[in-house]
Amino acid sequence: MHVHPLSAAVHQLQKGNPWLLLLFILNQFCGGFFLNQHYNPAFISLQMMKHAWDNYKRYAWGLNELKPISKQGHSSNLFGNIQGATIVDALDTLYIMEMKDEFKEAKEWVERNLDFNVNAEISVFEVNIRFVGGLLSAYYLSGEEIFRKKAVELGEKLLPAFNTPTGIPWALLNIKSGIGRNWPWASGGSSILAEFGTLHLEFIHLSHLSENPIFAEKVMNIRKVLNRLDKPEGLYPNYLNPSSGQWGQHHVSIGGLGDSFYEYLLKAWLMSDKTDEEGKKMYYDAVQAIETHLIRKSSGGLTYIAEWKGGLLEHKMGHLTCFAGGMFALGADGAPADKTGHHIELGAEIARTCHESYDRTSMKLGPEAFRFDGGVEAIATRQNEKYYILRPEVIETYMYMWRFTHDPKYRQWGWEAVEALEQYCRVDGGYSGIRDVYSNHQSHDDVQQSFFLSETLKYLYLLFSEDDLLPFEHWVFNTEAHPLPVLRGDDEKKEEEEK
Ligand code: DMJ
């Protein structure tokens, strides 16, 4: 579906969306200059981020997330009664987009109100990637001590999660009592690979900033446990029991339950200034096994990453899995045996497949999961897989592919997503997820996820900005898109200072 510029302009006028209207008009007079060639990052900050932030501020200030239709706060049990998820998740985006007043008010809220001395059972993974990651990035970008202090304080609260027989942490932790447990639905009382495997970057930085080695020791021990275990076909199952140290069900996924474990192996190596050889080996060995056992091509020529259940493939790919295109591209440079070009190509093929999953819907936004069986390709067939909750992974992959190839199609695809978000997700009170992206009329889920501000909008902004904004030689992004600096050895630091 192509939105005709005139009807799009009228639509934006009806919605009281003057910036976009102005852009459409300018675009018409300037032969497509604004929208087709020089996609403007200012549109993402001035129009989209501002709308998301202002409405959160107006209707849900200090609460975790915004319900943009009912115009009130949304609380999720992931954070227990820790408050302010959107504020902490958005801090670095505000800083990067130079939204100075908003950053200042967010910082003041953190100083006055962010409180971890609460009786709350939280998800260790979610609190780590959003709160610890958000605070660390805010500290590194702004140099404001309060963020460092809060990050270390929260890191200390998370430590009791590692009190298990193996040191593999619990998924859930009461940060007052220090009592942990796992999700009741997880196979055989297991912890989840993508959860305990996505602490590494933040915990290495916590040790660095606090000069307390405990954080790094905890995550290095996770590696040790994993490296002692046999892996079926070289693959990592999603479930690991923290008491017995044995795998649960042999389900393998590069999407939900597995995804960011692989991402953090690669990024741990990059963040160590390429000195963490163990992380590097684990990443490239895992990618080799993924290629052999999970990556397939559809009869229509689309490359996809299937899920593996005890040796059988389920030909389904989650929206979450789409981050892997960017990961393959980011890892291409270090790929062994002259495989750099191959990894970039793999990234490009995943980007294309994920773009198809968007393009084959009526709203041009991708479903939660899409299938390659029963005569369909890159289409959701089950009603409960047709929703879109403002997720970033496809745009994240476009951003990485753009940086590595400068192929203009990635900016074009990113702009298609901008148009679709504006048309279907933007409402008076912010941005909302959609219940069915194949439907012709919008049914909103009434949640503005905090990752929309921390990831989706940040990756869009970076996609349309110059490459020297947060260059990859100096920064790695945690799985919630919070940039963390590469940690250089003393010699390298000196060399850089001399330059
Ligand atoms: C985010 O919290 C992170 O990207 C996480 O790794 C996966 N899920 C959401 C976004 O979809």
TrEMBL record:
Names of the cofactor(s): Ca(2+)
Annotated S-S bridges: C322-C354
Pathway assignment: Protein modification; protein glycosylation
A single BP term in Gene Ontology: carbohydrate metabolic process
Predominant localisation class: membrane
Subcellular location: Endomembrane system
Any one Gene Ontology molecular-function term assigned to this protein's record: calcium ion binding
Bilayer topology term: Single-pass type II membrane protein
InterPro entries per UniProt: 6hp_glycosidase-like_sf, Glyco_hydro_47, Glycosyl_Hydrolase_47, Seven-hairpin_glycosidases
GO CC term, one of those recorded: Golgi membrane
Catalytic residues (UniProt): E126 (proton donor), D259, E368 (proton donor), E393
Similarity comment text for this entry: Belongs to the glycosyl hydrolase 47 family.
Role played: Involved in the maturation of Asn-linked oligosaccharides. Progressively trim alpha-1,2-linked mannose residues from Man(9)GlcNAc(2) to produce Man(5)GlcNAc(2).
Protein name, UniProt field: alpha-1,2-Mannosidase
